[in-house]
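Bug #77: duplicate submission created two jobs. Keeping one. Sequence:
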Amino acid sequence: MSNKISIAIFDSDQEYIYSFIDYMKERQSSQYRIEFFTDAELLDLHCKEKMPDLIVIAEDLISEYAIRHVSGEGDIYQKDFHFSFLDQENRNHIAILTEDDDISSIDGMSVIYRYQSANMVINSILELCTEKELSINDNNGHVKKRFRGIVSIYSPIGRCGKTKFTIQMGMELVKRNYKVLLINLEEFSLLMEYLNIDQNTGRKGDLSDLLYFYISRNSAFNIKVEMMIENYKGLDFIPPTECIRDLKNTDSKVLMEFARMIGSIKGYDFILIDLSSMIENLFQFLAMSDKTIVPYIDEGSSVLKVQKYKSFIAKSNYGIQPDNMIEIDIKKMKNLYGGKDFFKVADTLEKMIRGD
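Kept job's structure:
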């Protein structure tokens, strides 16, 4: 028995509906199920069998089927029909696809602007789910068991190419058919610039918003996760925060629990976390990670810094295991896109997944 949040979308424009169907082929979810309708009576029958959690209907169609109407032509009489679910009790479960982007509701029902990309329309629908606090019971089996590990990438050396390395490591693991999420916990992150992604695309938040939902124990956290995660060539990522105070004020244990919860919800093989020194209790976070990668540049003071870092780790009581730490010389990698050391790290992470 499915325990996903159920969403029905109804529009008579078949091309519009097919664009969503094509998009959803690439956006599978364990948290919600969307069914598409172009026939009013089939939608009504579907709703009589089981009322969806949210119904999204084109504005012109909700007007057409809001009241009973009978029309005749010659001796042929068309059967009267109206939506059986259009009553006051169900208004909170209905949203209207409107051509007007300046209104917030119609007759007490939420609205979604129809002339957006499929991604933005779906995200608007998921945003409504969070506002209406639609959620899935954590005990109903939606949590996947596939998630295997947190890989933290941290370096005591600045400007060594750590973020680009993290991106390319994620891409390499995706090529090996692993499901990977990248979370950047740096202040003033350049992740979006490195991915060449426009930051003014109307997205509805970033890492800070997702952290807020988690810390406040909002029942719609699972849906917010689905809404916030974006994808670049197969690599999932969460847009980094613009408010560094949110990172600085969040304890490392909470950040780790947050990451592992997302890993379980989405069934990731790896979550790669790009760290900075500003994280509260950084070394505690590293100790809780399943693997840590230390990128560095084998030259001058950089080598000395890595030696001091390793010496500190060895003498500290944080519990960071040397066997779980991988050092990699960025200079030996070929433009951060390959080289034997790069693939050696990927091989090591694969062994971690297999339990070797």
